[in-house]
Amino acid sequence: MARRWLTLCLLLPLAACDPATATVVIVGSSAASLAHTDKTVPDHIATWVTGEDCSLLRYTEEDGPYCQTEAETAPTATQVVCYRTLGAIDCYDAPDPKASSFMEVR
């Protein structure tokens, strides 16, 4: 953990060379990161430093915590619906509106 803080502290002065350039770089990289990973650059840094999953998007749009442990972010089990077909049982994540009720496996 101390090495992470040390690395972060050593990289921060590099942004002070030209504030306008640093702002453009940070905003541009945060926008690109947000589009691809749903996290900004500061979110990635906070995740790296704390070891938890940190997301500004979750905090602002879902009214959730900014950082949470991996156990809290684990995907929940989805409902699986299975139907008997010719020689097999096929399962889907949503009910098939065209399937009859006698084919459903419970």
Adjacency order of strands in the biggest sheet: 4-3-5
Percent helix, as a range, is 40-55%
How many domain units?
2
**Topology, number of strands:** 5
Gyration radius (Cα, Å) is 23 Å
Strand percentage: 15-25%
Low-confidence stretches: none
Q: Oligomerization state of this entry?
A: single chain
The 3D shape can be described as elongated
Span between termini: 49 Å
Largest sheet: 3 strands, antiparallel
Number of discrete helical segments: 5
- Structural class, please? alpha+beta
Summed over residues and divided by their number, the pLDDT gives a mean of: 75
SSE sequence, one letter per element: HHHEHEHEEE
Describe the structure concisely for a colleague.
This protein has 106 residues and is of the alpha+beta class.
Topology summary:
Blueprint: H1 2-11, H2 19-37, H3 41-50, E1 53-54, H4 56-61, E2 67-68, H5 70-73, E3 81-85, E4 88-92, E5 104-105
Antiparallel strand pairs: 1-2, 3-4, 3-5
Write structural notes for this entry:
- With about 110 residues, this protein is of the alpha+beta class.
- It has two domains: about 70 residues, no CATH class; about 30 residues, no CATH class.
- The chain has five helices and five strands, in the order H-H-H-E-H-E-H-E-E-E.
- The strands form two sheets. A three-stranded antiparallel sheet has the order 4-3-5, with no helix packed on it. Strands 1-2 form a two-stranded antiparallel sheet.
